[in-house]
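Protein chain data
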Amino acid sequence: MASQREVRNRIASFKNIQKITRAMEAVSAARLRRAEQRIAALRPYADAIRRMTRQASRDAGGQINRIPLLATRESEQRVGILLITADRGLAGAFNSQIVRAGAQLASELEGQQRQAIWYASGRRGVSSLSFRGRELAGTYTGFTDRPAYSDARQIASDVITAFLDGGVDRVEIIYNAYVSPLTQRATRETLLPASAAAVAGDETEQAEQRDEGDTPRRGSPEYEPEADELLRELVPHYVEISIYRALLESAASEHGARMTAMRSATDNAGELIDDLALDMNRARQAEITQEILEVVAGAGSLA
């Protein structure tokens, strides 16, 4: 059995850890509130861009295939995989579930005789892929806890350039969608060609308008310039907004996951401290008992 001093030192260590985890939980909670506000501020603009892109895509009709970012390719041999992770850890399974989802997608592509081209945002994703021997076509770090639109623009520029140059035939993005501080859902979306995400049927848009309390629009708008020319300008912004939304969702998910993980760590530290306090009491009782036995033995030897 450990001595009282050893147990006391362990209790002091766990109390220090408990202070750190409690402070990290408070910091993550404050950052989570700001991240939620940024998501709420972006949502109206992102929804408007999505509706405009969908409407213009339908009105452009057969001219969609003449727009490179909307054209679906017959052969998709090279698929880009963009992982959105964090720069830091201590957030439970937040980073590992994204890396696992990317690895699963890459395995599926390899089974179809296709090649995965890797892009990663966040030091955790970059280091995990590098450790597994994956060659990265693009790495983006240093901003995951508070991403800016310029960060999304940089990533979008790289993947769009690779898509237009034929470096990739399709781009998939995998990120943690924010549901609540306790729940982050690993989400996979097709980023390019944008038609897979931007062009939706009439039923989908009407359902969205009903959810928003609007009356479904009837008739077609008039475009100046033409719908296909407008799409050439809209689609790159759509891709940027999609990446920016994923970055914001991931940032909120990271703070929520870290807050939850630190709260659990704080509770676990408290339980360990209670257990160690019992151990210290047992050690003290054992030492007292031993001293009494020694005194009794000494008194018996003098009798």
